[in-house]
């Protein structure tokens, strides 16, 4: 997976610039931050994730914050 | 209604005459009945300006109560004044009143005493009355050691003050009133027992009192993120005291009996002040020490406000364990306008929580925060980072807690600087007196710097004081400007790299004070107690791309550039 958004991984959380519905900067909670890191490191795909983690990953795809394809 | 221009005051005919006697038996009844004492109520300075400055609600209640019994008075609020107390007293002619009542906090005790001495010197017949939390705690001392103080009203002031004013008006002796402490002619301290608490708070008039203030009041407002609007706000008190007994809390000196107002009375008060001020207040800050003691009654208050005007939003302060009691109630409150909760977290260390007598485990703190976060309610954090017995392990636990729950984004950065204040009359003050084998002077607020028991913690605390002095103002300004700019760009539909960079830089800037503290704690843990000249070496690099603090500040300044915007006062309040 890849993203065109700028992001910051600091103080235990991932922050995605313009990642919110109105272009706000969003902070992912600890669990969501883990999912984000794993997706971008290509350790896992959204389909392999279950429950709320899977829902979260799919929502990132729907909103276009994450895009299919390898990160560069 | 109290007048606000002292120079234009009409005198009652008695003021400024030294023969105005408190005990004047020779007067006829008719003459006595005509005498309306000139009364002033003063909130002296606590020595620094409180960014949440609002009218002193305690004396406002007392003044409104007196007025409802036909006795007018004038209010003076010097809460954050930096001017000498004597100069303020002279400027506002406080020596021209028959009765001057002071609301005394620990922080303002010295200023209150200085003003009182100045008044007494010029007008020995003025009756000086002190009340409020600190005066209650040291009533005997004030009378024994400070001849300029005639009377202390302990605890709730309405009834005793009315009785005192009536006696002055009738030229009867003012000693012997329930709930007061005074000096006998032989110099001995005497007092009478406390009167019963005011059980039915609905019987009290609303705290409608005008104050002459040295600084004026910033218009109280609240920026509602949900509606994106800056709303005019009002402070309302819906209950008194608190049934808990945290060891550091000054609320309890006023008495531990918790009483509440009815929802109808609270709504009437909002309506009353909207009409009085011609301002459609749309956010209510509940000033209660603990608003959420009984979830159902708290919900009933908010429901009633919502029924009165659904546009009104509210906020309140409470304890962590209360939050866990009723998530459903909080969810409903959120639906009908609750925006944030001020949460008395205080610490993440079991030892500190025990010293503070919070009666909760750190896990309860975590659960309460998670509950509010799940509900999407903003949290205002009350935290005590340092107390004299704090250990490095305590600091590590506190930082880990703040980091884990996402509070490294939190502004203002108060949580990492706050030190325990040992208020008079609190059990923890006595605990430290015993532990350190010395009694603090009655009006002294002991400086924690001299009380630290662990050198490593003292070193971290010194480093944090340096950081606050040296860097915090620049960080606050950059955050205030940067947030406004990012908000302006975002809401204006601007997207792209500059906005993204600014957003991430602001996050990074928020983190800096926390990460700096983390570095100091790590260094102290390795036995490297940072010296002042080495503090700079502990400043973190944060952000993406990572940058040193000076660089980060410069980057934000460059991004914000020449953007011009009206400073939104609520944002400034949040970052100042
Ligand atoms: C809301 C609040 C604030 C708000 C608003 C205060 C306001 N507008 O008055 C803000 C955030 C601005 C604030 C600021 C501060 N506060 Co404050 N605040 C409170 C809180 C939680 C509730 C106040 C309230 O609504 N009281 C309701 C009224 C009805 O009660 P009351 O104020 O006690 O007044 C009654 C009696 O005390 C008495 N009385 C008071 N003054 C006088 C004067 C006379 C002459 C008489 C006869 C009687 C009398 O009669 C009143 C009516 O019954 C209290 C805790 C509490 N009391 O519950 C802390 C509390 C009063 N605050 C405290 C402190 C220390 C401060 C600050 C110095 C800074 C700080 N650390 O927060 C500043 C200073 C403000 C100032 N003096 O200018 C301490 C006081 C401790 C002490 N022993 O000194 C308290 C007890 C909390 C604590 N930390 O333990 N505060
Ligand atoms: S819960 Fe709050 S108001 Fe109540 S005693 Fe504790 S600190 Fe004071």
Protein described:
The complex is a heterodimer of chains A (72) and B (576). Chain A is an alpha+beta fold and 72 residues long. Chain A has one domain (7-62). In chain A, 32% of the residues lie in helices and 14% in strands. Chain A has two helices and three strands; from the N terminus they run E-E-E-H-H. Chain A has a three-stranded antiparallel sheet, with helices on one face. In chain A, strand 1 (7-10) and strand 2 (13-16) form a beta hairpin. The longest helix of chain A is centred in the C-terminal third of the chain and has 12 residues, at 51-62. By secondary structure, chain B is of the alpha/beta class. Among the domains of chain B are: 7-203, 3-Layer(aba) Sandwich (Rossmann fold), CATH 3.40.50; 454-576, no CATH class. In chain B, 40% of the residues lie in helices and 14% in strands. In chain B, the strands form four sheets. Chain B has an eight-stranded mixed sheet, sandwiched between helices. A six-stranded mixed sheet of chain B has the order 9-10-13-14-15-16. A two-stranded antiparallel ribbon of chain B has the order 11-12. In chain B, a hairpin with a 4-residue loop joins strand 17 and strand 18. Chain B is globular. Mean pLDDT of chain B is 90; it is low at 1-28 and 569-576. Chains A and B meet through strand 1 of A and helix 17 and helix 18 of B. Cobalamin binds next to strand 1, helix 2, strand 3, strand 4 and helix 5 of chain B. Residues 242, 244-246, 249, 251, 289-290, 319, 344 of chain B line the site of iron/sulfur cluster.
């Amino acid at each position: 997976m890849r993203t065109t958004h700028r992001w910051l991984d600091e103080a235990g959380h991932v922050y995605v610039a313009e990642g919110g519905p109105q272009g706000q900067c969003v902070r992912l909670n600890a669990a969501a931050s883990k999912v984000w890191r794993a997706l971008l490191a290509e350790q896992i795909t959204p389909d392999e994730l279950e429950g709320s983690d899977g829902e979260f990953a799919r929502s990132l795809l729907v909103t276009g914050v994450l895009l299919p394809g390898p990160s560069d | 209604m109290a007048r606000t221009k002292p120079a234009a005051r009409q005198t009652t005919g008695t003021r400024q005459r030294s023969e105005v006697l408190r005990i004047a038996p020779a007067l006829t009844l008719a003459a006595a009945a005509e005498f309306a004492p000139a009364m002033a109520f003063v909130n002296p300075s606590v020595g620094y300006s409180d960014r949440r400055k609002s009218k002193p609600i305690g004396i406002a209640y007392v003044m409104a109560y007196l007025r409802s019994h036909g006795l007018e008075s004038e209010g003076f609020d010097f809460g954050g004044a930096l001017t000498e107390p004597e100069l303020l007293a002279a400027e506002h002619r406080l020596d021209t009143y028959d009765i001057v009542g002071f609301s005394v906090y620990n922080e303002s005790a010295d200023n209150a005493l200085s003003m009182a001495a100045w008044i007494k010197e010029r007008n020995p017949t003025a009756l000086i009355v002190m009340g409020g939390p600190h005066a209650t705690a040291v009533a005997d001392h004030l009378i024994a050691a400070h001849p300029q103080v005639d009377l202390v009203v302990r605890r709730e002031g309405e009834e005793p003050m009315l009785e005192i004013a009536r006696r002055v008006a009738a030229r009867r002796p003012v000693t012997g009133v329930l709930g007061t402490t005074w000096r006998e002619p032989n110099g001995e301290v005497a007092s009478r027992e406390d009167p019963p608490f005011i059980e039915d708070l609905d019987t009290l008039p609303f705290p409608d009192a005008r104050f002459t203030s040295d600084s004026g009041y910033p218009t109280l407002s609240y920026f509602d993120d949900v509606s994106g609007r800056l709303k005019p706000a009002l402070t309302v008190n819906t209950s008194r005291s608190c049934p808990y007994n945290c060891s550091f809390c000054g609320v309890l000196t006023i008495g531990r009996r918790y009483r509440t107002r009815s929802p109808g009375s609270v709504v009437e008060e909002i309506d009353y002040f909207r009409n009085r001020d011609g301002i459609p207040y749309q956010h209510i800050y509940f000033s209660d020490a603990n608003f959420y003691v009984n979830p159902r009654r708290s919900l009933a208050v908010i429901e009633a406000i919502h029924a009165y005007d659904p546009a009104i939003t509210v906020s309140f302060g409470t304890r962590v364990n209360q939050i866990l009691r009723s998530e459903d109630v909080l969810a409903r409150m959120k639906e009908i306008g609750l925006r944030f909760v001020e949460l008395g977290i205080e610490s993440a260390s079991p030892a500190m929580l025990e010293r503070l007598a919070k009666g909760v485990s750190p896990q309860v703190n975590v659960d309460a925060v998670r509950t509010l976060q799940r509900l999407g309610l903003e949290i205002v954090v009350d935290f005590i980072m340092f107390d004299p017995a704090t250990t490095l392990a305590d600091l590590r636990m506190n930082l880990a807690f703040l980091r884990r729950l996402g509070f490294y984004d939190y502004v203002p950065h108060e949580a990492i600087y706050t030190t325990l204040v040992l208020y008079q009359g609190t059990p923890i003050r006595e605990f430290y007196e015993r532990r350190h084998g010395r009694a603090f002077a009655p009006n002294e607020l002991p400086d924690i710097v001299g009380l630290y028991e662990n050198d490593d913690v003292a070193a971290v605390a010194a480093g944090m004081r340096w950081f606050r002095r040296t860097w915090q103002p620049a960080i606050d300004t950059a955050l205030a400007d940067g947030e406004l700019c990012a908000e302006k760009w975002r809401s204006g539909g601007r997207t792209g790299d500059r906005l993204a960079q600014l957003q991430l830089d602001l996050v990074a800037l928020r983190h800096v004070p926390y990460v700096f503290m983390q570095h100091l704690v790590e260094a102290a843990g390795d036995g490297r107690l940072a010296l002042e000249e080495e503090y700079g070496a502990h400043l973190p690099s944060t952000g993406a791309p990572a940058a040193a603090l000076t660089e980060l500040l410069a980057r934000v300044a460059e991004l914000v550039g020449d953007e011009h915007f009206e400073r939104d006062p609520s944002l400034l309040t949040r970052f100042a």
